[in-house]
Amino acid sequence: xxxxxxxxxxxxxxxxxxxxxxxxxxxxxxxxxxxxxxxxxxxxxxxxxxxxxxxxxxxxxxxxxxxxxxxxxxxxxxxxxxxxxxxxxxxxxxxxxxxxxxxxxxxxxxxxxxxxxxxxxxxxxxxxxxxxxxxxxxxxxxxxxxxxxxxxxxxxxxxxxxxxxxxxxxxxxxxxxxxxxxxxxxxxxxxxxxxxxxxxxxxxxxxxxxxxxxxxxxxxxxxxxxxxxxxxxxxxxxxxxxxxxxxxxxxxxxxxxxxxxxxxxxxxxxxxxxxxxxxx
Length: 280
Description:
It is an enzyme of class 3 (hydrolase). By secondary structure, the protein is an alpha+beta fold.
């Protein structure tokens, strides 16, 4: 077990111990003095902060961006892009230093994009997944690869794009998922081994949409799953990143660029044709 993996395990154990101590203190006789109850939480926060600031090793920092095919077709826009800041999601944890989120912005016959449901302060609190154009969109292999992980047993929850729902996600749901581990955070997912120590992560995949399983070989452009809303998400979207190992708990991020697209910046719309695979 790597040091990074061991620290991730210790991080979750500390939070779990803290929660147990608090519950015992509420419903029974406290096991520890009030001040000592918070020691596991302090340790967990310290570990979490250290891991979130621990970026790629020097060898990876100097590594050129890996060019791969786009994982989608159609018209999309970028959120939380590494083109604007690194780490793009404010943390290096789970190998997501150079991660990107994308949402569908399809054009209608009149050339307009159907409106993605906007963030609301209070109402509606949640929305159905089919209200978002990204939900169910096909996901494609970004290169010839081997599937090392494929999971789609988690439910697609409702949106979290209102103030009450976002507060629930940030204060309760996200914390619980964090204690449960990387799989609870990224939800249903596919991880591809692209070779030469590079792995591609597709997170928040739609439940029941997998078209591959661990051990399968895939060709660039091959459909592998569909966009969902599982895991730690506010709305249906694809979270994509490259990393240097198959385990998000211990992997470090690797920069990427999409062939013909590059790395779209936050809010930038881009279109990918149906023939996205590099010529072979």
